[in-house]
Design a protein that fits this description.
This is Ribosomal RNA-processing protein 12-like conserved domain-containing protein. Residues 1067-1090, 1103-1182, 1199-1221, 1302-1322 are annotated as: Disordered. By secondary structure, the protein is an all-alpha fold. 64% of the residues lie in helices and 1% in strands. The strands form 3 sheets. It has a two-stranded antiparallel ribbon with strand order 1-2. α13 (295-309) runs antiparallel to α14 (314-329) and α16 packs parallel to α18. The radius of gyration is 45 Å and the shape is extended. The protein starts with a strand and ends with a strand.
Length: 1322
């Protein structure tokens, strides 16, 4: 008969296998094994007689469809290739004996297959191996493991490559694997391979209870690897057979085995140790399998867990808890709720005792969290009954000393409160309390009352060490109960209030206490809260007033009632105001002021009560009447009232307009339900009521705005604007035309005053003139506030009134007019297109310096409109007309104007690049080229401004970096000019390119950049040395030292060497530095990079350190140390130390008008007073016109020796300053430093105790550089601390007597005399 393995590759319907007799294969295999193992020591093979019968494998695979497939476990194993050759190639280099045996068996099998002309595929090897192994196992004697194991290994390798039908055929493969597993002398390695085969067979649907028993027996094997694999096999079997009878069978087998071993360990004294070990092994199995078992058998296992928990042994408890955790965390597991809740309740009693280990407590607390939540989701009624017991167990765990267990128990309590307390449970408790008040007989406390009592008990002194955790649990309970917390938690709130009286020394949780009280306030509401915890304003002694409640009320009140404020809080305001008046009449000014502060604190609660109130529609009319009266009579409350109106109106408008209200994590938990109560209908009704009250409020606010000289924070303007946005049109129109009439009258008055001033009349009547200007400015501000309530026609009327004001000679009026126009352009869609010609004509007018910032806002809208138009000519005309003005504004002295010019430049760029509105990258590059075109200007101011504009656009848009590199030749040509203004701007552009460019772009242009930086004209070589050095350092950091060195000119190599040495020196210093400096460095290097700041980049209008620019630009180099100022800047700081100048306050946008006599005189007067004040000060030195120090005789000559810090602070007045002093000047210009010199002795070192003064103390002068973002500046600022603590460290650990006995003190005590009448301190 022809033997062989025939496969039909295109239509594999049948697999025919025909092999020679098994005995021949077995004999050849044994022969090969003997030859391979002759060199091994003592290997004995039994003689296995050939079987008389011939096992023909033709029928093994007859009629079976092939299902060959690769598995993830052995992806390289060939399916149709030579399996034997593949395995020999992998094991040929191995020297392990078992690998040699395996190769020998494979060789003999390959020879046998080759002799029979069979294909050497995994299927053929499977058939041959099964035939050989069957003969080995059919003998009476047990075969040697050295022979059996290679066969089993081969089967484990080929099983995944053989079809399921072939494996299940005649049950031969399963029978062989089970026979191997039952061998008494089987090795762990053989068991592992056999288990791999078994799990593969079982997961294909072979339902054999005998196989499950074998797996379970192996789960208690002494070898850990075997147990682990057996557990994994059981888990895989359960997972594959989920929901079938096989799963029921396996689950029953596992449960019965667990119960049997449990009884054995419990009842048999002789084998108790062995039984206990078997139980521990089975617990590991259950951890893997219990979540996949059937519900009936899981209940049996849980009953066994309950028996094991009685032992309270950590080795037993941990696997039990892990098994229950796995059961509860698996969302598809079948959980018997009654059994689970019972065992959890049992654990709450057992594992909360003090003698329980920390690990057991922690794992138990985590089990309570997941177990009770899962049980509650499956059967609420069963879970609720046992919930108080679990709460008590967690409470006892919190009382333990184990930190991890405390955290776990706190988290579990918070989770159970949020998940297991529902509305029905709360309603049941409320009904019980209400019935008890009606004298209805009450049997026992409800579940929710028990839970609240448990939570309340956490505030006992027994838990004082963990009160911070207790406050978290109490807060969670307040938030969960909400308004019903007043029924259950009243006593808890009283206890929290009493804790406020605890001294700070023994109570470090004040902040957590206030947060907990705030949670109670948010849950109960302010009305109920203040009924329980009273402010106690009626106390005769003001120290008894609970002022600590005011910040909590202000922060956590949300969703309150406006009627409570009008009826209760406002009555308190009236009472306290009357009390303050009485105290003032009695001459008790201090007490009167204290009461006035309480009145203001009560008014400060109004914004919180306006935060999503529940009765706006019903109570706002009464509140509006009160507010109108308070606005007219109490000026100090206007800001609070305006803020409250803004909050109330804006919140309702957002709801009506459908805007989503952002809620951050730090917001009060009561905010979410308060927002939920607001819908569009509710908010519309609220706005309707406020609309009816708007006329009266607008009239009062506009009148106050006219009369008041200032509006701190713009609160009046914002309130008027919000009211105008909701008021009726006729109300706003009436107020608008009234304002315009007043503006017209004020303008006529101003014109008349100007004419009289020009004619020489009333020259000194400057106050009246300024008053009319201020009135016109306030009227323009009022127009800005009314704009939200105006229609298009009224906006045109306002625009008409602005035209003459925009050409007014007074800068203040121009500024206000441009401000009104910018708001109109921002808020009115289509206004630009409708009035384009007029706007272009107005924008061509020259404006006052103070109005330039608001004019830039107007120009932005014009240029943004031009960017969207399709008319290329119109776009080019508009941009070319106004872009130079925006660029020149980059050179403005006023910082706000300068910053706004940069913003406008960038915003226009974004408008050109916005694809959604017709922009694209091509338009952006065209806009960039227009900015570059301004470099053709003649004046240095225009050229430097254009360079700054290019730098800003390059910083903002990475797509423009390549275009900016094309400007490098022009940049280097401009650097050759002897103009500091242009040079600074170009160095700033280079700094931006180096910081923002990718490394590849820098390498491509590195040579030109380095050579261009080092070519300087003679007159400016030393002016920007520090900036050039900084740029080189940035290049070294990004490109590497070798790259920069390769392009560095030879004559400048010393500079590169110096940079490297300085860097290495600083790194060594840092490595040897203190822990404080390292922590500062780590903080600094982890800080975020700053945003654009033109002052830092160009150093044009600030006298900051030159080297700080690099740190600013490069976000990764924040820890870079400073370089010294250039010699030129140091010399400039020496010249003219007291140069006469006007001290001008530039806090506002309007600079000093030198043509205004009144303002000039005022500035001169303030300058003279300032110089006189400085001259009279004893703390500052005086210099003559040539810079020499003036020393006075007499009182001024008796200056005491000051400390090093004070000397540093005054070293900036020294003329002949050395390099060291220059550095000192740089790090200590922080103003006045207190030296404590009044304690200094005239005759000896040390400090003296002075009469009527505090005792001497070590001081550390404060320095603003402590707040610097740069580590080297902070390190210098804290350096003075070393001198403060030097003596303390020297005497550390010594008693007072030992300290006084030291050599220094002995010399001091013997060599110095105490001054009469004074006592010397240590």
């Amino acid at each position: 008969m022809k033997t062989g393995l025939n496969l039909k590759p295109w239509n594999p319907k049948r697999l025919l296998v025909s092999l020679p007799p098994t005995s021949d294969i077995q004999t050849s295999v044994l022969t090969g094994l003997r030859a391979a193992t002759n060199s091994t020591k003592g290997l004995r093979l039994r003689h296995i007689q050939s079987s008389k019968r011939n096992l023909v494998m033709d029928s093994l695979c007859l009629g079976i469809e092939t299902g060959l497939c690769l598995t993830p476990s052995e992806p390289d194993l060939p399916v149709s290739g030579d399996f034997g050759e593949f395995m020999r190639s992998r094991l040929s280099q191995s020297k392990r004996p078992d690998h040699n045996h395996l190769c020998a068996v494979i060789d003999e099998l390959s020879k046998a297959l080759a002799e029979g002309n069979h294909s050497r595929t995994p299927v053929a090897y499977f058939a041959a191996t099964c035939s050989s192994l069957d003969s080995l196992l059919s003998t009476d004697a047990e075969p040697p493991m050295d022979v059996v194991q290679p066969h089993v290994v081969i089967l484990s390798l080929v099983f995944p490559k053989v079809s399921a039908g072939v494996l299940r055929r005649n049950g031969l493969a399963l029978r062989l694997v089970l026979s191997v597993l039952r061998l008494r002398s089987v090795t762990p390695e053989c068991l592992i391979s056999a288990l791999k085969c078994l799990v593969h067979l079982l997961t294909m649907g072979n339902e054999v209870s005998e196989a499950h028993s074998v797996l379970l027996n192996l789960a208690t094997h002494s070898d850990g690897k075997v147990r682990k694999l057996a557990n994994s096999c059981l888990r895989d079997v359960l997972e594959k057979t989920r929901g079938t009878k096989a799963c029921q069978s396996v689950s029953g087998t596992i449960a019965e085995s667990f119960q049997k071993h449990l009884d054995l360990a419990h009842n048999s004294e002789a084998r108790s140790a062995e039984g206990a070990q078997q139980v521990l092994y089975l617990l590991s199995t259950l951890k893997e399998c219990v979540a996949l078992m059937s519900k009936k058998h899981v209940a049996t296992v849980i009953e066994g867990f309950k028996m094991l928990m009685v032992t309270r042994d950590a080795f037993v408890a941990r696997p039990v808890i892990d098994s229950l955790n796995a059961l509860c965390l698996n969302p598809t597991s079948e959980v018997p709720v009654e059994a689970l809740v019972e065992v959890l309740y049992h654990a709450a009693v057992l594992f909360s005792a003090p003698e329980t280990s920390a690990d057991a407590m922690t794992s138990t607390a985590r089990l309570f969290k997941v177990g009770m939540v899962r049980a509650f989701s499956l059967n609420r009624d069963v879970c609720v009954v046992k919930l108080p017991g679990v709460f008590n167990g967690l409470k006892d765990i919190i009382a333990s000393e184990h930190e991890e267990a405390i955290f776990a128990a706190t988290d579990a309590l918070k989770s159970l409160i949020c998940s297991c307390i529902d509305e029905s449970l709360i309603r049941e408790g409320v009904n019980g309390i209400q019935n008890s008040k009606l004298d209805v007989k009450k049997s026992s406390p409800t579940v929710i009352e028990k839970l609240c009592a448990t939570v309340e008990s956490l505030l006992d002194y027994k838990y004082h060490a963990v009160w911070d955790m207790a406050f978290q649990v109490v807060s969670t309970m307040f938030n969960k109960l909400g308004e019903e917390s007043s029924y259950f938690m009243r006593k808890t709130l009283e206890d929290l209030s009493d804790m406020q009286d605890l001294p700070d020394e023994g109570f470090p949780y004040r902040k957590q206490l206030h947060e907990c009280v705030g949670s109670a306030l948010g849950a109960m509401g302010p009305e109920t809260f203040l009924n329980i915890v009273r402010l106690n304003l009626e106390a005769s002694d003001l120290s008894e007033v609970n002022v600590w409640l005011f910040p909590i009320l202000k922060q956590y009140t949300v969703g309150g009632r406006l009627s409570f404020f009008t009826e209760t809080i406002f009555r308190m305001v009236e009472t306290m105001s009357h009390k303050a008046q009485q105290l003032k009449l009695q001459g008790l000014t201090a007490a009167s002021r204290s009461v006035d502060s309480l009145v203001y604190s009560l008014w400060a609660l109004l914004p919180s009560f306006c935060n999503y109130p529940v009765d706006t529609a019903e109570s706002f009319e009464d509140l509006g009447r009160i507010l109108c009266g308070a606005l007219q009579t109490q000026a100090e409350t206007r800001g609070v009232i305006c803020t409250s109106l803004n909050i109330l109106i804006q919140q309702n408008k957002d709801v009506v307009e459908g805007k989503e209200v952002p809620v951050n994590d730090a917001a009060s938990p009561a905010l979410v339900p308060a927002i939920t109560r607001y819908d569009s209908h509710h908010a519309a009704a609220n706005l309707e009521v406020m609309r009816s009250c708007a006329p009266k409020l607008l009239d009062v606010l506009s009148k106050i705005f006219h009369e008041s000289g200032k509006d701190d924070g713009g609160s009046l303007q914002s309130a008027i604007g919000n009211l105008a946005s909701i008021a009726e049109k006729k109300t706003v129109s009436k107020l608008l035309f009234k304002t315009l009439r007043e503006l017209l009258m004020a303008t006529k008055t101003a014109i008349a005053e100007d004419e009289s001033f020009v004619s020489g009349m009333d020259v000194d009547n400057a106050a009246d003139k300024n008053s009319s200007s201020n009135l016109r400015a306030r009227l323009f501000d009022l127009l800005v506030s009314l704009l939200p309530g105006l229609d298009g026609q009224e906006v045109d009327t306002v625009f008409s009134s602005l035209k003459p004001a925009m050409q007014d000679p007074k800068g203040q009026i121009q500024k206000k007019a441009y401000k009104v126009l910018s708001v109109i352009l921002k808020s009115s869609d289509g206004f630009v297109s409708k009035n384009l010609e007029e706007l272009l004509e107005l924008m061509h007018n020259i404006c006052h310096v103070s109005a330039k910032r608001h004019k830039l806002d107007c120009l932005y809208f014009l240029l943004a409109y031009a960017s969207k138009t399709d008319d290329l000519k119109a776009r080019k005309d508009i941009v070319s007309s106004f872009l130079p003005e925006v660029i020149l504004a980059l050179k403005e002295v006023n910082k706000k104007t300068r910053s706004r010019a940069y913003d406008v430049l960038v915003q226009i760029g974004h408008a050109y690049a916005d694809e959604e509105n017709g922009g694209d990258n091509e338009k952006l590059h065209g806009y960039f080229n227009m900015v570059v075109g301004c470099l053709a200007g003649e004046k240095p101011q225009m050229i430097s401004a254009a360079v700054k504009g290019v730098a800003r656009l390059t910083y903002e848009f990475p797509d423009l970096i390549a275009s900016a590199y094309n400007l490098l030749p022009s940049t280097f040509l401009l650097l050759q000019r002897k103009n500091k203004e242009i040079t600074k701007a170009n160095l700033g552009l280079l700094k931006v390119l180096v910081a923002k460019s990718p490394v590849e772009g820098l390498h491509a242009n590195l040579k030109s950049i380095v050579e261009g930086l080092l070519k300087w004209p003679e007159g400016t070589k030393n002016l920007f040395k520090a900036k050039v050095r900084l740029l080189l350092e940035m290049l070294i950091k990004k490109c590497g030292t070798e790259a920069v060195k390769s392009v560095m000119p030879e004559e400048h190599m010393k500079l590169l060497t110096n940079i490297r040495k300085v860097k290495e020196r600083k790194e060594r210093k840092y490595a040897a530095g203190s822990e404080m400096s390292r922590s500062q460095h780590s903080k600094e290097t982890s800080s975020k990079a700053s945003r654009w700041n033109d002052t830092k980049i160009f150093s044009d209008f600030a006298d900051e350190d030159e080297d700080s620019d690099g740190d600013y630009m490069d976000g990764e180099s924040n820890g870079r140390s400073k370089t010294l100022k250039s010699k030129a800047s140091a010399l400039r700081s020496k010249k003219h130390p007291r140069q006469s100048h006007l001290e001008v306050d530039e806090s506002d946008d309007e600079p000093l008008d030198l043509m205004d006599r009144y303002k000039t005189r005022s500035a001169l007067r303030s300058s003279e007073l300032g110089r006189k004040r400085k001259a009279d000060s004893d703390e500052e030195a005086e210099f003559d016109a040539e810079g020499r120090l003036i020393i006075y005789e007499g009182e001024r000559a008796k200056r005491k020796e000051i400390s090093d810090a004070d000397s540093d602070a005054k070293s900036r007045f020294s003329v002949n300053t050395s390099r060291k002093n220059q550095k000192r000047l740089k790090i200590s210009e922080s103003g006045y430093a207190y030296t404590g010199k009044e304690y200094a002795s005239k005759k000896a070192s040390g400090d003296l105790k002075r009469k009527d003064k505090l005792e001497p103390y070590a001081y550390w002068p404060l320095d603003r550089k402590m707040m610097s973002r740069r580590p080297d500046q902070r390190a210098v600022a804290v350096r003075g601390m070393s001198s403060v603590v030097k003596l303390t460290k020297r005497l550390e650990g010594k008693s007072a007597a030992e300290a006084l006995a030291t050599t220094k003190f002995q010399k001091f005590r013997s060599g110095q005399k105490k001054p009469a009448g004074k006592k010397k301190s240590k």
